[in-house]
Write a structure and sequence with these properties.
- The chain is of the alpha/beta class.
- A hairpin with a 4-residue loop joins strand 4 and strand 5.
- Helices cover 28% and strands 29% of the residues.
- The strands form three sheets. It has a seven-stranded mixed sheet, with helices on both faces. It has a six-stranded antiparallel sheet with strand order 1-2-5-4-3-6, with helices on both faces.
- The N and C termini lie far apart (41 Å).
- The chain has three domains: 86 residues, Elongation Factor Tu (Ef-tu), domain 3, CATH 2.40.30.10; 108 residues, Rossmann fold (3-Layer(aba) Sandwich), CATH 3.40.50; 66 residues, no CATH class.
């Protein structure tokens, strides 16, 4: 029997709407599916004129030869990607890239996902569960309509919490509030956390780091949102970590959150804002939303 991995077709073989402007896309890519590890990402290009988009691999199925991406349609390229129908093909799908998550075995880890960051937390929770680690999963969003992957993460977590800014589901407040309570409870029980992994908007990751710093808990954050090229060529993903300049795409995307310069990171994320807004405006004018697309 021929056991060689088939060349990738990059075909979209599944498409599921998870929430407003959030779509799970299953893509045929046997090579990536057989090799990817939690925390790694791919570079996607929709067509000849498309930009390169770094996206975390949310899940994979080595048997089917597919990888799953969860994409929030924010700018032109992500909206274009989310509009692809089943049967279409991506021009490029490169990976797996980046350093995998270091998975603690049989420890106690809190995984905190905010907004679309929950999609990045999911494969990490899955890997920790497989390593028989005690997982505390905390997922949050602005409101209940923006929560994703609750049914996927809950069975893998030993403890599971939901927060929403408006209190429409779970605890009213922020994920950092819930995390602080979990830290205090764990310490009171004599089972302190070994690590916290937080992924989401920069203000949320900063808040989590501020919550864990007084307790001296190792805190890992993912800076995937700052990546542009994804291969270390463009330098657009530079970030200061512990006073040293790092390229997020090749040195990360995960770093010690207590060492990240969040002020500089916030400014760098604004670098391409005007270009992104202009591209989105032009795209939306030529591609009005289809009310029946979902």
């Amino acid at each position: 029997m021929d056991t060689r991995i088939r060349p990738p077709s990059n075909a979209v073989v599944g498409r599921t709407v998870l929430g407003p402007d959030v779509v799970r896309i299953d893509i045929e890519s046997p090579f990536i599916a057989s090799r990817r590890r939690a925390g790694q990402f791919v570079i996607v290009r929709v067509d000849e004129r498309g930009e390169r988009i770094p996206l975390t691999i949310a899940d994979s199925d080595a048997r089917r030869g597919t990888v799953s991406l969860i994409v929030q349609g924010v700018g032109k390229s992500t909206r274009q990607l989310n509009s692809l129908p089943v049967g279409s093909r991506l021009l490029d799908l490169v990976g797996p890239l980046g350093r995998p998550t270091h998975v603690i075995e049989r420890g106690r880890v809190a995984c905190v996902g905010g907004g679309i960051g929950t999609a990045v937390i999911f494969p990490i929770v899955k890997a920790l569960h497989a390593a028989e680690t005690h997982v505390i999963a905390i997922v949050g969003a602005r409101n209940k309509g923006l929560l994703i992957l609750e049914d996927d993460i809950r069975p893998l977590a030993d403890e599971f919490f939901i927060t929403t800014d408006d209190g429409s589901r779970g605890r009213k407040g922020f994920v950092s509030d819930q995390l602080l309570d979990c830290i205090k409870s764990a310490q009171a029980a004599g089972t302190p956390l070994d690590e916290v992994i937080a992924i989401g908007p920069v203000p949320m990751m900063r808040a989590v780091c501020n919550a864990t710093r007084p307790f001296g808990i190792k805190t890992v954050v993912s800076l995937n949102s700052i990546m542009v090229d994804g291969t270390g060529m463009c330098g657009g993903c530079r970030a200061s970590v512990g006073g040293e300049m790092k390229f997020v795409c090749v040195d990360g995307p995960e770093f010690d959150g207590h060492a990240v310069d969040f002020d500089e990171l916030t400014l760098r994320l604004q670098t391409y804002r005007e270009d992104e807004q202009r591209a989105l405006k032009e795209y939306m004018e030529s591609h009005p939303p289809d009310p029946h697309s979902h």
